[in-house]
Each structure stands twice: as structure tokens, then as C-alpha cells.
Design goal:
220 residues; alpha+beta; Deoxyribonuclease I, Chain A; 6-stranded mixed β-sheet; 3 helices; globular
């Protein structure tokens, strides 16, 4: 996928990566900048971004207080370095106990802390929140769906996925404070043994309509 397809950015959740798997093993031809957050204390999870080296990318260091959040953040710059898009890749496990409620609060605090209101923010990931009705912007009043939906509304973010991504549910989301920069959102075949569809979309990175193609592969 890295070398046969002409993707500029590949965003992955549930990587199952660990320290024993180096970036050189993931991208032996060294065509991409690799930005990743592995799950530290248990098997599974993890998020990762591959950004083609033809683009200028700046990784954001996230504070240690958010270590339990599976989030990576980076900026992709246009050719003038004045056009900047901030990307987040997020994975929230499908758990709904008191520990998971704390984790949801942590994810919301992390996103709120690092979203840049002066630039475009694009948040992509598997949030495992199937009970949000994105047409009516309604959900149950629980400790998971409600606080996340409230955060998005207060942040003026729009959710752009309108088709099921896993079974009959919309679990994988594209969220942004500037929907005009995103186009051609399509479901694609799952990656490997995933039970989630892949999501392909374009981002207008520069004012002269140069497009960057994004592939989001979740649920591996």
C-alpha cells in the first residue's frame, strides 16, 4: 500500500505496533515520515501516520498527562509554509466502564488543548461511538457519547462521514473546523482482515488547489 498506491498520507488506527517494530521495518524504502503512538502496557491499539516526504510535516509533542490517550498530532505545511493543516489520529477502544469514561475525558481534553483555532484542524479516527445520530446531532446522555458530541459542537467541528464504516455503524469519523478543504470522501475496501472500511478523501492544502490525498485505514 505504501509503494503501490500514490497516497500522500496514510492514517491508521489499531496498529498493534510495539517498540520491537521499528519505523525502518514499516517503511524500508524511507519514503514517509512515520508518526506513531503505540499502546504501552497491553497488546493491541495504537495509532500511526505515514506522511510522504514530499510534504513538510511537523510532529507535535503531546504532554505526558495525555499518555493514556491513543492520539498523534502533526502539522502538514503547503509549499509556502504559510498554509498549515493540523491532523489528529485517534483511537478509543470500545469500552464503556468508569475507566473508559475517564479516558474519554482525557481524549477530549487532549484535542481541546492541541486544536489550533487559527488553522484548519482535521481529526480522524475510530471513536467507537455508535449511538450518535449525526443527522440530528443527538445521542444518549451517558459519559461517552454526550460529552464528545458536546465538545464537537462547542468547537464548531463538523463530522463528514455519512455512511457505515463497520457493519451498520459509523464508528470511524472525519471531524474538522473547516469542511470546505475536504472533498471526495469515499469508502474503500478494508485493509487486510479489518472489519472496517477504509476511507479515502482529498484535502485542499494550498490556495492554488494542489490536493493532498489522504487514506484512512481503521480497525486493522
Amino acid at each position: 500500500m505504501l509503494y503501490a498506491c500514490n497516497y500522500d498520507i496514510i492514517l491508521i488506527t489499531e496498529t498493534w505496533l510495539c517498540n520491537e517494530i521499528t519505523n525502518g521495518l514499516l517503511d524500508p524504502s524511507m519514503h514517509y515520515n512515520v508518526i506513531r503512538k503505540d499502546r504501552a502496557h497491553s497488546k493491541g491499539g495504537g495509532v500511526c501516520a505515514f506522511v510522504n516526504k514530499r510534504w513538510h510535516v511537523i510532529s507535535t509533542s503531546i504532554d505526558a498527562k495525555f499518555d493514556d490517550c491513543e492520539v498523534v498530532c502533526f502539522d502538514c505545511l503547503g509549499s509556502s509554509n504559510h498554509i498549515r493543516v493540523r491532523f489528529f489520529v485517534v483511537y478509543r477502544p470500545p469500552l464503556y466502564d468508569h475507566v473508559a469514561a475517564h479516558n474519554m475525558c482525557c481524549i477530549i481534553d487532549c484535542l481541546a488543548s492541541y486544536m489550533n483555532p487559527r488553522n484548519t484542524n482535521i481529526i480522524v479516527g475510530d471513536f467507537n461511538l455508535p449511538k450518535i445520530n449525526w443527522k440530528t446531532l443527538s445521542c444518549p446522555s451517558d459519559n461517552f457519547h454526550k460529552p464528545f458530541l458536546s465538545f464537537l459542537i462547542e468547537s464548531s467541528c463538523t463530522q463528514l462521514i455519512n455512511f457505515p464504516t463497520c457493519g451498520s455503524n459509523i464508528l470511524d469519523l472525519i471531524l474538522t473546523n473547516d469542511a470546505h478543504v475536504i472533498s471526495h470522501i469515499n469508502a474503500d475496501t478494508p485493509c487486510g482482515a479489518s472489519d472496517h472500511v477504509s476511507i479515502l478523501f482529498n484535502v485542499i492544502l494550498t490556495t492554488d488547489s494542489i490536493l493532498i490525498v489522504i487514506a484512512c485505514i481503521t480497525g486493522i
